[in-house]
Amino acid sequence: MTDSNNLRYELRQMEEQNAREISGWKYEPPYDLYNMGDDPAGLQELLDGSYYAVTLPGNQLAGFFCYGGNARVPGGAEQGLYSGDNVLDIGLGMKPEFTGAGQGMDFLRAGITFAEQQYAPAKLRLTVAAFNLRAAALYRKAGFGLTGSFERTRGDNSMEFLVMERPLM
Prior knowledge:
- By secondary structure, this protein is α+β, with helices and mostly antiparallel strands.
- The protein is 24% helix and 32% strand.
- A seven-stranded mixed β-sheet has the order 1-2-3-4-5-7-6, sandwiched between helices.
- Strand 2 (51-56) and strand 3 form a beta hairpin.
């Protein structure tokens, strides 16, 4: 897919080299929630078939998309927020140095187009940390609407997540 800056995003099945690079990405606080680190389970998840690397010409890794159950944040299912017929959950991440540079909409459109072509769902659903105002605004601009929210507690920390959906047909 081509964007307004003549960038061409290509999605393809995640390979180990891409997964290892993504595992090493470091986001600045408060976005460091998205840092994966070198957890072997995280690397295995990136290679389980539900993740796709997003590259630019010259094979430069720009980010990733995830489709299906791995795109769900634990806690939302217990609240009944991941139900519905023909709804595809998506997750995504951009390379840290590309975030906040005005490329988000074109990146997101590439992943939406891929989902339409590969999975043909009636709706897309995503989950975003409520503090991530920049991403939530992008998703609203792309036609996603809020369908619910939930708190996820890990250790002593609690965080709110927003669940958003967008019809495709």
